[in-house]
């Protein structure tokens, strides 16, 4: 992956200059999105483009940590609406990484479980995620706890 300084919207290659961002320069939401995109792209490149993408990794991890999680609970944990989680769950199931089971107590509820292949894939992806997170730790430095607290505060106050 070619290393470039900044983001293409901020420093387009070959232009010799920056695009004027105007008010976006100070918009936290804009910078959060750019940072997330760059982080996800770097992670996806590291694990291989054909493997599970970062959003799917998060879903696998949540299902692995919470066997029997319902799709609605997964949706809330990922802060995604049900309509975007449904295709995610279907893709994970088609890849053989999760299975859906009817709940023993309430047959109308469907629970999510990792398959053996899902457990194996999650283990591999977790290793890559931990390595990627160490790079982010190095960037954030000793302000990690403060940074995470601010991100959680944004989520809690805007949700």
Automatic annotation (TrEMBL):
<dbReference type="GO" id="GO:0003700">
    <property type="term" value="F:DNA-binding transcription factor activity"/>
</dbReference>
<feature type="domain" description="HTH marR-type">
    <location>
        <begin position="24"/>
        <end position="156"/>
    </location>
</feature>
<keyword id="KW-0804">Transcription</keyword>
<keyword id="KW-0238">DNA-binding</keyword>
<dbReference type="GO" id="GO:0003677">
    <property type="term" value="F:DNA binding"/>
</dbReference>
<dbReference type="Pfam" id="PF12802">
    <property type="entry name" value="MarR_2"/>
</dbReference>
<protein>
    <submittedName>
        <fullName>Winged helix-turn-helix transcriptional regulator</fullName>
    </submittedName>
</protein>
<keyword id="KW-0805">Transcription regulation</keyword>
<dbReference type="InterPro" id="IPR036390">
    <property type="entry name" value="WH_DNA-bd_sf"/>
</dbReference>
<dbReference type="InterPro" id="IPR036388">
    <property type="entry name" value="WH-like_DNA-bd_sf"/>
</dbReference>
<dbReference type="InterPro" id="IPR000835">
    <property type="entry name" value="HTH_MarR-typ"/>
</dbReference>
């Amino acid at each position: 992956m070619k290393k470039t300084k900044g983001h293409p919207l901020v420093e387009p290659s070959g232009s010799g200059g920056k695009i004027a961002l105007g008010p976006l320069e100070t918009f936290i939401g804009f910078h959060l999105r750019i940072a997330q995109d760059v982080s996800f792209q770097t992670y996806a490149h590291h694990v291989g483009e054909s493997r599970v993408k970062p959003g799917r990794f998060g879903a696998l991890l949540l299902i692995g940590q919470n066997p029997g999680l319902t799709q609605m609970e997964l949706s809330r944990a990922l802060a995604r609406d049900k309509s975007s989680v449904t295709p995610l769950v279907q893709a994970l199931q088609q890849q053989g990484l999760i299975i859906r089971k009817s709940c023993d107590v309430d047959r109308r509820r469907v629970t999510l479980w990792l398959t053996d292949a899902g457990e194996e894939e999650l283990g591999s992806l977790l290793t890559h995620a931990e390595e990627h997170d160490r790079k982010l730790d190095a960037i954030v430095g000793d302000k990690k706890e403060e940074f995470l607290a601010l991100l959680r505060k944004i989520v809690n106050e805007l949700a």
